[in-house]
Amino acid sequence: MTEPVPHAVPRSVPWGAALIAVGVVQFTIAMVVVQSKYPGYSDVANYISDLGNTATSPWNAVFNVSIILLGLLAFVGVVLAWHGFPSGASRAVGLPLVLLASVAAILVGCFPENVNLPVHETVSLLVFAPGGVAMAVLAAGMRERTSWHWLRGPSAALGLVTLVSLAYYVPTQVNNTTWGPGLVERFIVVPILVWGLLAAVQLFRRSREPSLDPRLTA
Asked: Which DSSP symbol is given to 7?
């Protein structure tokens, strides 16, 4: 019987992982810094997008450039790391959703809330919804026989938090009845950022461990 041949992960995968991680970290730092420069800013009452408001946020340029960088780095990172993710239907559906969310993040920075609110709200939703669905879809492909299995539960849980929070957020925004909009928005966004870091860690791990399972690299 022929021995299985190891399937090495493409060399582009760790570079993609690095870009994803850098994008998430720099955006997180930018949020903290810009918030510290925003007088009276509240995590509960203020939207995340208030940090990019060109009329009220003193360091709005830092936030807007940072979220554009997040989108760019995530998009290129996912493309480079594509074959590091488990193959199959979950990858074919989930990663294009991540790419869509990445492009939308770029547009969020290009259209601050006070510049073009309808466009800003639309592209923000295109970050939130595809991001949440992508985490849930990709979790389905993290099977027991793959090294991604440890991330299956966290991916599903993070996706659920994002989607449940979004399901509350959207209709209450329409009726202007959202309690603590900034806090709810963070329950939508933070899971996506955490997932990005966890995925980057796993992609680094995969790049160092050649696999006998072609599903991991196909």
From this structure: B
Distance between CA atoms of residues 47 and 70, nearest Å:
18
Give the model confidence (pLDDT) of 182-207 as tens digits. 999 999 999 999 999 999 999 999 87
Amino acid letter, 37: K
Instruction: Please give the single-letter amino acid code of residue 217.
Output: T
Is the dihedral angle over the CA atoms 203, 159, 157, 95 positive or is it negative?
negative
How far from 14 is each of 56, 81, 82, 119, 148, CA to CA, in Å? 39, 7, 11, 34, 15
Contact 60, 33 (CB under 8 A): no
Distance from C-alpha of 109 to C-alpha of 104, rounded to nearest angstrom: 9
Q: How many CB atoms lie within 10 A of CB 79?
A: 14
Supply the pLDDT for residue 24: 98
What tokens were used for 39? 């007088």
Beta bridge partners, 211, equal 7
| pLDDT tens, position by position, 160-172 | 999 999 999 998 8
Chain-centroid distance, C-alpha 25: 12
Cα radius of gyration (the chain): 18
Domain ranges of the chain: 12-208
Report CA-CA distances (Å) from 142 to 29, 202, 206, 214: 30, 11, 13, 14
Mind listing the pLDDT tens digit for each residue in 3-49?
333 456 788 999 999 999 999 999 999 999 999 999 999 999 999 99
CB 112 within 8 A of CB 52: yes
